């Protein structure tokens, strides 16, 4: 089969004549001259340090954009959230909704703030939200909670690894006491052991209250880790606080069957009439789209099957002070769309990795707290409801984008809303 002739720049070709070997060596070689762009040694947020950083930048017109008077007046709020502070970035925030959620914890019509620079995104989620509300809302259920940290230890042999495990399983009560002494909110709920040759991975699982909990579980597990190194009867060859079994901020398949953060499922039954009215297509066509894209996802090696959870979660996480890097794992999950026995559409989403909180981290920063307050989901006792809202929002987005593809509107919407 002939290949499409692509006119592209192959940068390796510059070695063939655009640049000599000596020039390439000079361009790519290490440079040891002192830098003239040196930040103050202290990373802390003080007025003097901020001014020193800007003096290195010598960009007064840019300073006005990043360090405006309002930001300066609120700068004390940021000192536990940022190092080498120079200002704030303003990201547009739009509202999607109302989105009716009938959950175990979230029971309201929500107007959801989404921070994004991607045109058509808020419009898409707004359309899906209105459709779901017109159909009676989203049924959402928090299924499980848990945040892990997974120390890894390497021993000389499998026999030594076995000796260590035999000791470690007798220490669970001690491990729990040590871990929980570091936090007033976290609880160590489970410890599992995974052996791979002479490697041992300890899986510590916590409940973290209304905090997302990454820092909490790191500090708690580190206290246990130091106890292990001081008291183990078999000294490891080497050991690390995390052996990368937790899935922290990485796409991984293990939590599709378990949990990291909060696991939520959400569903809706939508009549064919409403599908036609809001999405201009049919339940049958949406189910066919789901079947084809499930196979496509399998062919591409995707973990989970969904259209674009990452769009909803990135925009909501940024607006509401969550750790945006956790979208890498939070955006894994399963979407299903089927024609139900009444000829309508059954649609569901399951997200097992929602790393979110309503206290701690960036949730108390002025703008981020305001976004949580808009939904009534700031502070203690609200994280479970926020998780259910997240799942409902993802369902709204799945319906809207699948409907757009089925109706042939996807490119048209982006052309209309994103092109100047």
From TrEMBL:
The enzyme's E.C. designation: 1.1.1.34
UniProt-listed Gene3D superfamilies: 3-hydroxy-3-methylglutaryl-coenzyme A Reductase, Chain A, domain 2 (3.90.770.10), Hydroxymethylglutaryl-CoA reductase, class I/II, NAD/NADP-binding domain (3.30.70.420)
Keywords assigned: NADP, Oxidoreductase
Enzyme category, top tier: oxidoreductase
A family per Pfam: HMG-CoA_red
CDD domains found in the cross-reference section: HMG-CoA_reductase_classI (cd00643)
InterPro entries (UniProt xref): HMG_CoA_Rdtase, HMG_CoA_Rdtase_cat_sf, HMG_CoA_Rdtase_CS, HMG_CoA_Rdtase_eu_arc, HMG_CoA_Rdtase_NAD(P)-bd_sf, HMG_CoA_Rdtase_sub-bd_dom_sf
Family affiliation: Belongs to the HMG-CoA reductase family.
UniProt name for this protein: hydroxymethylglutaryl-CoA reductase (NADPH)
Species per Swiss-Prot/TrEMBL record: Vibrio algarum
Taxonomic lineage of the native organism: Bacteria, Pseudomonadati, Pseudomonadota, Gammaproteobacteria, Vibrionales
């Amino acid at each position: 089969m002939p290949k499409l002739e692509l006119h592209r720049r192959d940068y390796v070709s510059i070695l063939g004549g655009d640049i000599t070997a000596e020039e390439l060596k000079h361009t790519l070689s290490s440079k040891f001259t002192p830098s003239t762009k040196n930040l103050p040694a202290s990373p802390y947020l003080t007025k003097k340090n901020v001014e020193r950083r800007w003096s290195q930048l010598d960009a007064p017109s840019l300073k006005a954009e990043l360090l405006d008077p309002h930001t300066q007046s609120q700068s004390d709020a940021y000192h536990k959230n940022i190092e080498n502070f120079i200002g704030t970035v303003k990201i547009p925030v739009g509202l999607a909704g109302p989105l009716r959620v009938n959950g175990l914890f979230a029971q309201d019509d929500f107007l959801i703030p989404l921070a994004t620079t991607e045109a058509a995104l808020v419009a898409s989620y707004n359309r899906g939200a209105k459709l779901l509300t017109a159909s009676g809302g989203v049924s959402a259920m928090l299924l499980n909670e848990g945040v892990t940290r997974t120390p890894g230890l390497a021993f000389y042999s499998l026999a030594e690894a076995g000796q260590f495990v035999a000791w470690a399983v007798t220490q669970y009560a001690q491990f729990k006491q040590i871990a929980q002494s570091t936090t007033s909110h976290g609880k160590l709920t489970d410890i599992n052991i995974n052996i791979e040759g002479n490697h041992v991975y300890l899986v510590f699982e916590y409940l973290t209250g209304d905090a997302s909990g990454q820092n909490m579980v790191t500090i708690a597990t580190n206290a246990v880790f130091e106890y292990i190194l001081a008291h183990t009867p078999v000294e490891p060859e080497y050991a690390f606080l995390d052996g990368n079994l937790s899935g922290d901020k990485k796409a991984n398949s293990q939590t599709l069957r378990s949990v990291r953060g909060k696991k939520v499922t959400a569903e809706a039954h939508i009549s064919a009439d409403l599908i036609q009215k809001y999405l201009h297509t049919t339940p049958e066509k949406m189910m066919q789209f789901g079947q084809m894209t499930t196979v496509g996802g399998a062919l591409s090696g995707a973990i989970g099957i969904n259209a674009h959870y990452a769009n909803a979660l990135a925009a909501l996480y940024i607006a509401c002070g969550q750790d945006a890097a956790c979208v890498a794992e939070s955006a894994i999950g399963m979407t299903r769309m089927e024609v139900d026995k009444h000829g309508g559409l059954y649609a569901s989403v399951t997200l097992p990795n929602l790393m979110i909180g309503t206290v701690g981290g960036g949730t108390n920063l002025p703008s981020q707290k305001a976004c949580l307050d808009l939904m009534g989901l700031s502070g203690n006792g609200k994280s479970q409801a926020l998780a259910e809202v997240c799942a409902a929002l993802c369902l709204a987005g799945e319906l809207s984008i699948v409907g757009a593809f089925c109706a042939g509107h996807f490119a048209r919407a982006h052309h209309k809303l994103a092109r100047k």
